[in-house]
Amino acid sequence: MTIRDAEVIVTSPDRNFVTLKITTEDGVTGLGDATLNGRELAVVAYLSEHVVPLLIGADEARIEDTWQFLYRGAYWRRGPVTMAAIAAVDMALWDIKGKVAGLPVYQLLGGASRTGLLAYGHASGKELPELFDSVRAHLEQGYRAIRIQTGVPGLHAIYGIASQSADTGGGTARYDHEPARRGARPVQEDWDTRAYLRHLPGVFEAVRNEFGPELPLLHDAHHRSTPIQAARLGKDLEPYDLFWLEDCTPAENQEALRLVRSHTTTPLAIGEVFNTAWDFKDLIRDQLIDYVRGAVTHMGGITALRKTLDYAAMYQIKSGMHGPTDISPVGMAAALHLGLAIHNFGIQEYMKHGQRTDEVFQQSFTWSNGLLHPGDKPGLGVEIDLEAARAHPYERAYLPYNRLADGTVHDW
Ligand code: EZ4
Ligand code: CO
Hints:
Blueprint: E1 3-11, E2 17-24, E3 29-33, H1 40-55, H2 63-72, H3 80-101, H4 105-108, E4 117-125, H5 128-140, E5 146-150, E6 181-182, E7 188-190, H6 193-211, E8 217-220, H7 227-237, E9 244-246, H8 256-261, E10 268-270, H9 277-285, E11 291-292, H10 302-313, E12 318-319, H11 329-341, E13 348-349, H12 355-360, E14 361-362, E15 366-368, E16 371-373, E17 383-384, H13 386-390, E18 397-398, E19 401-403, E20 409-410
Parallel strand pairs: 4-5, 4-13, 5-8, 7-19, 8-9, 9-10, 10-11, 11-12
Antiparallel strand pairs: 1-2, 2-3, 4-16, 6-18, 14-17, 15-16, 19-20
């Protein structure tokens, strides 16, 4: 068989998604997620102009070779746009291989290492009562692990706090946070790290008092602290036994994690903005992190993230794959197949997509008793309804950004 066609599909049911659909001469189709939140059309251009022409006539069975050809052959390596494009091709080829074999992708990766994947959801609230309601709502939905984000006194709009009036497709309020907003310009939010550091430990104390010691709790610091501030945060949160503290410092300066690590035993997770194994290499080798946050969609696909996670396994470092709603149902399915197969699975981030998204993408993964499972359909188990996709054309959307009180742009 060879590849007959490759189509780049842009759709915006609840938010923008970029999907690659590869079709073989025998009519087998495979899907890959290429969504890069807020910069979607850059990946569309990379795929359409530079990758699709190379795929036509290629052998879809050669997944590793295609990955190496697209990565090394371009000369210009790494970067979120390139790696999201390669990821989409890689996922689509695994989807095809599964369909040809009549097996779900996790079987091709070695079979299930567990019965299901522990998932965490996003609880948030500006004040404690709203936060507690949000935690309760997540527990009722079956979540067994919960990320806690909260308002900070004096700050008007900050990361991770849901707008409960947001209509996300089902028409119902939701407590989790989707940061991208449609519009001509990014929304501006506020930040003050000292106010945050004073406030957050008390929030975790209140949550522990209300919900007890067992519930795994997570927190995303979203790259906002300096190394010494992050060290203090990790130390101050130790009594509340976090599952992890995520992205405590900006990702570029990896040495920062050494300083944080020397001060705290709070487990550290990092890497949702990383895009290759090399971004993780030193952090893994020096045991400066506990969880790899890379997404299949942003790390160059199943092929590349598998290698990174196998390396991490040698150091008892586990997966914590990025799974917000800007990972499409296709990217989520790829994460679930990989997570089910590897031994060093840690936890999977899981925010439910809205109803419109579920109409465009027919998914076969299941969610019960707090555990996700990719299902047993051949391939990734996701199909796209092209007519439904066409009904939701692209709309420009941006992630927000931050300014301090004096107007300085701060890390987001
Ligand atoms: O801000 O997915 O852990 N999850 C996160 C997300 C990210 C968005 C960026 O595209 O940090 O909410
Ligand atoms: Co994050």
